[in-house]
Amino acid sequence: MTSVLQSATPALRPASEGRAPLKIGIVSPYGYPHPGGVNEHVRFTYDAMRRMGHDVSIITSKYGRERESEGHVIRLGTGWAAPANGSVGRVTLGLRFKRQAREVLEAENFDILHFHEPFVPFLSPTMLDQSKTVNVATFHAFGGFSPSYWIGKRFAGRLADQLHGRIAVSGAARHFINRYFPGEYEIIPNGVDLDRYTQAEPYENLRDGTLNILFVGRLEERKGLIHLLKAYNRLRKRKVDARLLVCGAGPKLREYKRYVGLRGIRDVEFLGRVSDAEKVRYFASADIFCAPNTGQESFGIVLLEAMAAGVPIVASDIHGFKRVVERNVQGLLVEPRNQRALAAALYTLSRDADLRHEMGDAGRARAPEFSWDRVTERIVDFYYQTRDRVLAGPVR
């Protein structure tokens, strides 16, 4: 890590500095440790909290043949995939939920229960219903009108009243959830693992003088890859020597491959689902990162990853992104679904190496604001503030 990042990322503040360590239960309804933005948030904050000296467990559901419990991971019920918000969500089912939840909470006696998306059925609502401790929730989602929340607010109002502290990962996420469950929301963003991205080595075969444009995301409509493919086709017609690296899998893969094949678009590499170790090397190999998402994004984690890697960004000008990337500083923001504007932004960066370096350096300088250690300290501070407020008055 460079000296700039070392000075910008102080060591974690131990729990012993004037405050007793907490016993914390983090509830994830998304089948931890399965891949996904929420579970990555859970993993990094869990690790940081334990380094701070707190006693932390993760409460989640079981998928397939996973054990019901292992180490500090407690599993209740069985998780199933279900369509949600233009992507794939999770639903947890179980015949003995209520009793299991009560038994776990009685045995563990947590100081804090932290729910990620507390109204995702049925693990989180069941745990929240049985909780007799201080309850904190983080809301990650963003979108347009949500029929499930509109209907659910009629039934989940009592559960919402049991939340003593509410966090949203962005202003967009706060705006979305506040429409259905009004209240006070603290904004604490997602984070990024700085060391992983600043120390990654590029793939030598990709450092051959060809401009590398990187896409990372699930191959589904709202991630917008089709718009990038159309923009990239325009770029190639303008004789730009580039390759497009596509990291991700999903239901649109065959459709996107067919689009590329029928039009004879050269140098598009569909790399499939890649490991974390491979992903950081692709970021290290990239000259431009592109996020052509169409909307319904509460926060741009992939943008943080690009910034930590020092890669300039071309991204859609949507609510969840513009609070991460500063316009014309770390990258260029364009109208979503506008392939002409996307192609123009890519062309601008492809022709100006100095601008790419300038934006990459600006991203690297901003990334420490979002280090997982810094984010976790803010979350833990919020735990103490919420607990002190609850202890000072009657628990709702």
How is the secondary structure organized here?
Blueprint: H1 3-8, E1 23-27, H2 37-51, E2 55-62, E3 69-70, E4 73-84, E5 87-93, H3 97-108, E6 112-116, H4 123-130, E7 134-139, H5 147-161, E8 165-168, H6 171-178, E9 186-187, H7 194-198, E10 211-216, H8 225-237, E11 242-247, H9 253-263, E12 268-272, H10 276-285, E13 288-291, H11 301-309, E14 313-316, H12 319-322, E15 331-334, H13 339-350, H14 353-366, H15 372-392
Parallel strand pairs: 1-2, 1-6, 2-4, 6-7, 7-8, 8-9, 10-11, 10-13, 11-12, 13-14, 14-15
Antiparallel strand pairs: 3-4, 4-5
Helix pairs in contact: 2-15, 3-4, 8-13, 11-14
Explain this structure.
The chain is an alpha/beta fold and 396 residues long. It has helices spanning 3-8, 37-51, 97-108, 123-130, 147-161, 171-178, 194-198, 225-237, 253-263, 276-285, 301-309, 319-322, 339-350, 353-366, 372-392, and strands at 23-27, 55-62, 69-70, 73-84, 87-93, 112-116, 134-139, 165-168, 186-187, 211-216, 242-247, 268-272, 288-291, 313-316, 331-334. The chain folds into two domains: 3-191 and 371-392, Rossmann fold; 195-369, Glycogen Phosphorylase B (Rossmann fold, 3-Layer(aba) Sandwich). The chain contains 15 helices and 15 strands. The longest helix is centred in the C-terminal third of the chain and has 21 residues, at 372-392.
